[in-house]
Amino acid sequence: MDDRLLKPLLPLAVTGWGLLVGAGHLLLGAHANRPGDPGAPPGRWPAGSRIAPDLGRPELLIFLHPRCPCSKASVEELAAALEPSRDRISVRAVLLRYGGRRGGPESDLGRLVRDRLGVEARPDPGGEEARRFGVTTSGHVLLFGPRGELAFSGGITAGRGHRGDNAGREAIRSLLRFGDAAASSHPVFGCPLSPPPRESPR
Fold first, then answer.
1. What are the backbone angles phi and psi of residue 8, rounded to the nearest 5°?
2. pTM for this one?
3. Are 55 and 146 in contact (CB under 8 A)?
4. N- to C-terminal Cα distance for the chain?
5. Sign for the pseudo-dihedral over CA of 157, 152, 118, 102
6. Which domain of life is it from (predicted)?
7. Does the first or last residue of the chain, that is N or C, have fewer Cβ atoms within 10 Å of its Cβ?
8. Class of residue 151 by CB neighbours under 10 A (exposed 0-12, middle 13-18, buried 19+)
9. Where are the beta strands (DSSP E) in the chain?
10. Separation of alpha carbons 145 and 56, rounded Å
């Protein structure tokens, strides 16, 4: 093709490419900032749970999907929130388990939980405990008071996989230090707590 015909098309091609790249960034940003399902946690510790509450002090649970790329950020943010008050609270990390050993304490996420939170991850076969606690999104944190009342429900990251200051993390920190916080909930950013297609829970 004659170069004289191609030259007028070059600016159009560059502009089109720029628009495509910009649209891609916008879509990625929208996904990162789109919260997951907030679920419907009960106002008190569910009587049917197989996880026995540690009565007499606050109890915190974090529910995680072993394949969600956002789970690591949630664990890191929780570790940061607990730093001033770790010895005053009981912490449980509940990992969805499906397809054999995935989601157990020896998974990569299970080891991160042990290293950063100082607890063994509790496998949740088929998400049974998540359903009892009304949780449907990975990274969801529930904080119960010493008498079993729900004090906080939600996420502790600013977006999907994002680390840094956010209202959820600060609410947990404030509740543990002062017994009060500006917010009792925060959007949770993570993957649905369900097995991928064609993988049945075990």
1. -65, -25
2. 0.79
3. yes
4. 62
5. negative
6. Bacteria
7. N
8. buried
9. 59-64, 90-97, 122-125, 140-144, 150-154, 185-186
10. 8
